[in-house]
Design goal:
single chain; 386 residues; alpha/beta; Rossmann fold; D-amino Acid Aminotransferase, Chain A, domain 1; 3 domains; eight-stranded mixed sheet; five-stranded parallel sheet; 17 strands
Length: 386
């Protein structure tokens, strides 16, 4: 039975992956992270919770810590879940070749992480691709849009941070762009938002899920995942991963118009919440191990949710919008992904993690989100050799 190291243990996706290995008996799951990660660490699906350095602030120690853990724990498979995936790919050489590391080569991830260069790769794969252009200022974006509806976003970002929507065209008093990096001006497409999550190995699609992010924290992360299988999206993903011979986890954001056309907006070459849609008996561990299986497509009968967030932020949003009855219906028909029968401690661990992030935000400044991700973020800058 392989020993599996799941990185980014702060994330619900890491908890989900550990549980899938534990339930299937296909591996012994251990978790590692550089910040408070009791969400996964307190799960009985996790055999050990291990500290490692944060790569953004000490890449050399991150690589050394990984090498030490892999050797000491005799790890066979390393699965990243958050943006440590980029750093893991860049410093893959610190680990033995015998270890399966579920990331593709760094230059490929760089192309996928760019919200501009990814769209060029996405052409001719069977989905709509929005018109886009690189801009450095609001004035450049306004000139490019020429009065058309548009979206403005940093070329490298996460969780919808700094994204600006102008469905009626850019406002005359639009404020300057806040970040000193390239921005992407993109044609605005109206429709239903969907998200997909997949696992591929050398161009073979092995696992796939699609969901609608029905409840969000502002325009950021979703916490309610409505299954939404879509044949056009699956076809695109199959063609795309085959085109670039991709290995690893890969996720996409979509807009499906009233005409049914699916337009791909951006790519996250890592895990996302779509991993929660796979059931106990689905062959997700086999997909992550790269085994020779037919693609398993998640089709759960019920939505999934982060129940504590749905109970707090979700209920507050529903009250503010006069949709309490709709919220109650959605609450009753979904299953929690944090507290499950036989494994009830992770939500308490998540609360401890939240306190640690709040303390970090007070000490260093910034938001809770920044405190929870600042040590693993990568915004396209060159990463040094070790």
């Amino acid at each position: 039975m392989p020993n599996v190291l799941v990185l980014g243990a702060r994330a619900p996706a890491a908890l989900e992956i550990a549980r899938r290995f534990h339930a299937s008996g296909r591996g012994v799951a251990m978790a590692a992270d550089s910040v408070s990660c009791r969400l996964s660490g307190w799960s009985n699906a996790v055999a050990a919770s291990l500290p490692i350095a944060g790569p953004r602030f000490d890449a050399a120690r991150f690589a050394a810590d990984l090498a030490r853990v892999v050797a000491q724990r005799r790890i066979d498979l390393v699965v990243p879940t958050c943006e440590e995936a980029f750093w893991l790919s860049r410093y893959r050489g610190a680990l033995p070749d015998s270890v399966r590391v579920l990331v593709d080569e760094f230059d490929k991830l760089r192309e996928l992480h760019s919200k501009l260069r990814f769209l060029e790769l996405a052409r001719d794969c069977g989905a709509g691709v929005p018109e886009s252009a690189a801009v450095r200022s609001v004035e450049e974006a306004r000139a490019w849009a020429a009065g058309r509806p548009l979206v403005l976003k940093p070329e490298y970002s996460r969780f919808g941070v700094h994204v600006r929507l102008y469905p009626q065209g850019m406002l005359a008093d639009a404020p300057p762009l806040p970040l000193a990096q390239t921005w992407v001006a993109q044609r605005f497409h109206a429709g239903t938002e969907l998200c997909s999550y997949s696992v591929a190995d050398r161009g073979r699609l092995l696992a796939h899920s699609v969901y609608r992010p029905a409840y969000r924290l502002s325009r950021s992360s979703s916490f309610y995942f409505e299954p939404a299988p879509n044949a056009a999206i699956r076809s695109f993903v199959e063609r795309f991963v085959r085109k670039i011979a991709y290995t690893g986890q890969i996720s996409f954001d979509w807009i499906v118009g009233d005409d049914g056309v699916a337009t791909v907006l951006e790519c996250n070459p890592r895990a996302t919440s779509g991993v929660h849609l796979f059931g106990r008996d689905d062959a997700l561990p086999e997909a992550l191990l790269g085994e020779n299986i037919a693609c398993v497509e998640a089709r759960p009968e019920r939505p999934r949710m982060l129940a504590p967030v749905m109970l707090g932020a979700g209920f507050a949003q529903a009250l503010a919008r006069g949709r309490a009855r709709e919220w109650l219906r959605d609450w009753r028909r979904a299953d929690d992904v944090l507290s499950v029968p036989g494994d009830r401690a992770p939500p308490l661990g998540g609360l401890v993690d939240l306190g640690a992030y709040a303390l970090s935000a007070l000490r260093r400044g910034g938001s809770l989100r920044e405190a929870a991700t600042r040590d693993i973020e990568w915004d396209g800058e060159e990463l040094p050799d070790l």
